[in-house]
Design goal:
The protein is mainly alpha-helical and 1014 residues long. It is built from 50 helices and eight strands. The protein has a five-stranded parallel β-sheet, with helices on both faces. A three-stranded antiparallel β-sheet has the order 6-8-7. α17 packs antiparallel against α18, α37 runs parallel beside α39 and α47 crosses α49. 52% of the residues are buried. The C terminus is likely disordered.
Amino acid sequence: MAYASISSAFVGRSGELEALAGGLRRAFGGEPQGVLVGGEAGVGKTRLLQEFLAAAEEAGAVTALGNCLEVGAEGLPYAPLVTALRQLHRVLGVELERAAEGYEEQLSGLLPDLGGAGPTPGDEYARTRLFEYTARLFERLAADRTVVLAIEDLHWSDRSTRELLAYLIRTLHRCRVVLVATYRSDDLHRQHPLRPYLAELERLRAVQRLELARFARAEVEQQLAGLLETAALDRGLVGWIYDRSEGNAFFVEELAFSYQGAGRVGLSSSLRDILLVRVEALPEPARQVVTMAAGAGSNVEHGLLAAVLELPQEDVFEALRTAVRAHVLVPEADGDSYRFRHALMREAVLDDLLPVERSWINRRYATALESDQGLVPADQRTGRLASYWYHAQDPARALPAALEAGRQARRGNAFAEQLLMLERTLELWEQVPDEVLLDLQCYDCADEAYPRRSQAEDGADAGRLRYVDVLADATVAASRSGDQELSVRFAKTGLRHINEVAEPECAAWFWLQRARAAHYQGNIGEEESEQARRLVEDGPPSAVGADVLHRIAVTGMLNHPSRMHLAIGERAAHIAREVGARTVELHALNTVGALRVLLGEIEEGLPLLREVCVQSREIDDPYLQTRVYNNLSSLQEQLGRSEEAVETAREGLAIARHYGLNTISGVVILGNLVESLLPLGRHREAEELLTSNLEQTGEAVLNYNVVRLQTELALLRGDLAGAAEYLAGVSNGNVGDRQPQRTLPWADLAVRIAVRSGLFAEARNELLTAIGNGLSTGFDHLAWPLLVHGAAAEADSRGLPDTDAGRTEALEQIRREAQRLSRIVPLYEGWAHMLDGELARAEGRNTPEVWLRAVEVLRPTGRPYPLAEALFRAAAAHAAAGAREEAGRLLREAEEQARKHGDTELLREVTALAERARLPLDPSAPTQLPADSGAVRDPSAALGLTARECDVLRLLTLGRTNRQIAEELYISPKTASVHVSNILTKLEVGNRGEAAAAAHRMRLFPQHTTRPRS
């Protein structure tokens, strides 16, 4: 019987192939697609992918395939993407070069063939820019063609590859790209990093996840028919192979091969033995080649393999031909390297070796690579060498190699891979002889403020690399790779290895890193910053000393700005200027400008911030530039200068996009832009920006401010349930580091949502919790709205059961906090007058004059918000006082401003007031005045309620149950329930509490007309 080794027929998988084809069709239509293909080892993922890629090419798509590497991949970030892009470069040539034009420097880590100079080493934002420019490259490539990028064996992927792939899946829009990745599902143990990664990607609309099942018996029979090249199969053989393979396609092939060689008798039941049958059938030279190839990694270059074999070239060729013909090894597409036909076979070969054999093989590879560095691609050299020496169990050579691999990873801003190499260096440090350690020289730390030994002491050992220097690099690498807890652990270890008396600057630097990590973990890091300050305050001027002072000033700015923090910031800028730390100086000046504005020195602070904006562009520091524009736009909005803030935020957003920082600084500045658009009434633009941000970055990077703004937009639309749902996702117990800029807006939204839901006690509790310990200086723009809405809640709840108790104390606390707030700009002055009006309403002494003062101050700001609220209250006060003509004029203006602001709820209240008081919103429409011009129309007519529904609503506002309402009105509880349902529909509210709140807010039932319960 003949044997084909690999079945010529593609068996089964019709559903999965159709799903992939469907994604390709959608991509041809301009919708990017992501497909994740999982399954156990040997189940047929590679064969499915090959069939799909062939079909895609036949349909006119350009395809590229990259494989994640297993052994030797620790220091090789982006390895599969580099391979895939090289394939694209070979296929597209000058077209790819044109697509990368202008991005050569940023893309040099992925496309070294373009000759870019490479990114700035240690730039913590260069990695983000690499992601952004890679996305732009694919958008250009796929503008007039469909591109399929396939990545195999994602379970072996490095973190940088995973994150870049996720970024592409999230951000590519309106271009013809299909991203396909395969992974072994049986390798995903509970702690495997791919598990949460896949779960996050699967939530995206454009991503589908396929899981390949094992073959059924009929499919195994089809596969065997192709392998054995016969349709007349022995049914017993089919059953035997199906039972042993359990439907795993690779095992079917290996069992069929072993059957051909030895029959069913004596075949080992061990999986490893099954996998080794094909290898053991090879002649000795070929087996030697296969054994050496297994130790190289997922694939091996021909030249490197030949170098370690030390056989005549003719013998190497013959052995390789034999291994390839036996389908053990497969030539790679580049024609210069080989891989195992299946990774399981390679694993079986490695498992069959003694530990000493594996070490010997790795040593051979390391020695060969050191002798001829051209044997592997330049971008893989240091990482591969570090891996070979490490697995050769030679610490004296593995440690320097790991250090160099870490430096190369940092030069490419692959911080996760740099961290891995630094951890290996720390692991090996104690195993390395002193003479090797003495030869290790210092190199530039990722943080320019870190004081190297040469700055701390003199002598022959001044330039020698120390254990603590590696800890410093690891501290920064952990932070920049997003692992703040690990960064803190490294910093603590560093402090244990430092003599604070002998090296105070070095110790201060580690304390400063702890402070920064604490900030990311939801703690302001004040204690850590003070420890750092204590160590450097009596020492000579230094970059780390300036950085420490600046950190303290920033902490104060974000939490409790004061004159002391301003002085500290100015001192930081002075020291930084003195020692030539230009970046630290401009950061400090930025903070000084912000503090001046927060402390009321507006005319001094804003010009300083604008000057720093200009100077920051001179040193080309993306983080500094975006930080300055973020602060300036935020402060302009705080001062009520929304139009200016919009323009500044747009400039900052353009800078963030230019540097590829959309998902970092760009998200924050985008929040500023949206926040300034809302009070101007430009809601559609704001919603489009937020939606676009969500599509491009995914929910994983939505920050607190973005969610808060989504809550605000939901409230304006009248979507109370949606607003409450958004707010629940950022509960007050989870607002990070408890900065006032976060807690106060959260409390304001919580108060407003509680009021609209009729939960007045909850509204009061939210307010008092927020202001209970006193409001911090410098956050007046957030405090004024919170106090106004808190007082309005007290006013709206007057006369409701169980709300009068505690009102006097609450109002008094509001007054005390208001006395400490500034009225330095018209917006603050307007809020202050509105607060006076709400306090008067809450105490039953509402008069028009106070509201008119608020309107006069707010009109010149050009902001519909909060002008619309002030106009509405002024109109209501005039109507109550019988000044109908003035009430009508104010109400019409309130409607105009509410429409500009897009406030659905306020528009509803305006309409209800107009109907109750018979005030025409259209002055040209005829209006029949009642005999008593001060009379207010019956609410049953105003809201479309019947007389009986009006009676039911009146009792519902008093908190009566359906049974109690039935008893008072002499109707059945069922009838009362029907009336309540009708009332909820006509008032357009969701529950009884909201209905009562709406009725009370609109004063439908003055207290003296409410009938007591009989």
